[in-house]
């Protein structure tokens, strides 16, 4: 039996997004200091926007708005992937 999703925190995709944030913060922790306000900051902001947009979209009243936030999330994923490469 499937459990009812009551919160964005119940979404596996949000949970995976939080894992990505944690991984990025750990990975960038020892980056050179000169990268703190450039690549380090950009990687962290891109990563945190993934679960943030999922959460914000989930709280919207209409599916159309939720879908829009999921598309924004896809953009953040592509941005993060590009920065990692």
In short:
The chain has 85 residues and is an all-alpha fold.
Structure description:
By secondary structure, the protein is an all-alpha fold. The protein has a domain at 36-85: de novo design (two linked rop proteins), CATH 1.20.1440. It is 69% helix and 0% strand. It contains 3 helices and no strands. It has helices spanning 12-28, 39-58, 63-84. Helix 1 packs antiparallel against helix 2 (39-58) and helix 2 (39-58) runs antiparallel to helix 3. The protein is elongated, with a radius of gyration of 14 Å. The model has no long low-confidence stretch (mean pLDDT 94).
What is the name of the CATH superfamily of the domain at 36-85?
23S rRNA-intervening sequence
How much helix is in the residues? 55-70%
Distinct helical segment count: 3
What Rg is obtained from the alpha carbons, in whole angstroms? 14 Å
What general form does the structure show? elongated
Number of β-strand runs: 0
Distance between the termini: 40 Å
Low-confidence stretches: none
What does the largest sheet look like? none
CATH fold name of the domain at 36-85: de novo design (two linked rop proteins)
Beta percentage is under 5%
């Amino acid at each position: 039996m499937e459990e009812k999703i009551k919160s964005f925190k119940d979404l596996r995709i949000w949970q995976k997004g939080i894992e990505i944030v944690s991984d990025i913060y750990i990975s960038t922790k020892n980056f050179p200091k000169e990268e703190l306000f450039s690549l380090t900051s950009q990687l962290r902001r891109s990563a945190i926007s993934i679960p943030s947009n999922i959460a914000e979209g989930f709280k919207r009243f209409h599916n159309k708005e939720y879908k829009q936030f999921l598309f924004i999330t896809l953009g953040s994923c592509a941005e993060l992937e590009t920065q990692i490469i």
